[in-house]
Design goal:
With 325 residues, the chain is an alpha/beta fold. The chain contains eight helices and nine strands. Strands 1, 2, 3, 4, 5, 6, 7, 8 and 9 form a nine-stranded mixed beta sheet that branches. Helix 1 packs across helix 3, helix 4 packs parallel to helix 7 and helix 5 packs across helix 8. The longest helix is centred in the middle third of the chain and has 21 residues. The two termini are 27 Å apart.
């Protein structure tokens, strides 16, 4: 997530614990038969991936540094190993709006249907963070385990699932953004290129901070809850109370403060972020204590597993069922 001095700060007042609670009156209910899948997400793989991406070796993954370069190589190797092809000539998409060399990592899982494969679902998360503290002593590395190595881990596991099962009739663009902490630079740069290609976007699911669970009767929330029927459709596809409404999300206008907004602004399609950070369950936003050891790996594994039926149906429904309101 972004720092406060950028106008894109997603979650403000994070230095204080919130005493406000969210109601769930607006939580949609399932109205159709859920999708069933046999694939199982491996907890050990989730753990190993997140542990490296949030390790001290990557020095907080600040855009333009040696640390994020190591992260980029790691992500490229993961996509290649799991048979996810590059979308461009290589996996690297150079940012056009950052002075130092910086790259989004972009993969393609082509759809299996001759017609539907012309439509795209974007699965995304940002792999950059805020780097190393200057002029202080002690732990100086902002590892960014929750923000947003957790989201990258989820998207990577979803990409592995689709590459293995080939259960997507639509094509899937897998994107790991750089420059998010600098003001959504990676997503802003990429959408300009895609727009010139007449990119046929159906919807985008952007994953932000899912490393710890909420104490609520739903698994996660989406930003811009009332802007589309995405929450309702996801709950139909999973057959569970997967997505609920978080008033803090609406209050802080989080829809406009993450990489989903860059895509919405250009394509005007359902582009929303999914998160389990609710202002009450995590104290280490942009803090050196945002480390692997405080992440809930079983929760993350369950999160990914629960979303697989939803992303499967999103990527394969005969018509575009998720629509703007």
């Amino acid at each position: 997530m972004k720092k406060r001095y950028f106008l894109f700060l997603p979650f403000i007042l994070l230095g204080c614990k919130s005493n406000l609670t969210a109601t769930v009156d607006k939580t949609p209910k399932s109205t159709s038969k859920p999708v069933e899948i046999a694939y199982k997400v491996e907890e050990a793989e989730v753990s190993d991936f997140l542990k490296y991406l949030s390790s001290d070796e990557l020095e907080g993954r600040e855009t333009g540094t040696k640390g994020i370069e190591k992260a980029a190589v790691f992500l490229e190797d993961f996509l290649k190993k799991n048979n996810v092809k590059p979308y461009f000539k290589t996996y690297r998409d150079t940012l056009t709006n950052f002075k130092a060399p910086a790259f989004n990592i972009v993969g393609l899982i082509e759809g299996t249907d001759p017609e539907l494969k012309k439509e795209f679902v974007v699965l995304s998360a940002h792999y950059d963070h805020i780097g190393v503290l200057k002029g202080k002593q002690g732990d100086l590395i902002n590892n960014g385990a929750n923000d947003d190595a957790s989201g990258v881990t989820a998207v990577a596991q979803m990409a592995k699932y689709f590459a293995e099962t080939k259960s997507n009739k639509r094509s899937i663009l897998v994107v790991f953004f750089a420059g998010e902490e600098k003001g959504l630079l990676g997503s802003k740069s990429l959408v300009q290129k895609l727009e010139k290609q007449n990119f046929n976007l159906y919807t985008q699911l952007n994953i932000e901070m899912i490393g710890v669970p909420m104490k609520r009767d739903y698994l996660a929330y989406i930003t811009g809850f009332d802007k589309s029927n995405m929450a309702e459709k996801i709950n139909e596809y999973t057959g569970k109370n997967t997505i609920g409404f978080l008033p803090k999300e609406a209050e802080y206008k989080l829809f406009y403060r993450s990489d989903n907004y860059s895509f919405y602004e250009v394509f005007k399609k359902p582009c929303q972020s999914i998160s389990t950070f609710d202002f009450e369950n995590f104290e280490f936003y942009h803090h050196v204590s945002d480390e692997f050891k405080v992440m809930d790996i079983p929760h993350m594994t369950s999160f990914i597993q629960e979303f697989l039926p939803a992303v499967t149906q999103i990527a394969s429904s005969a018509t575009e069922e998720i629509t703007m309101k």
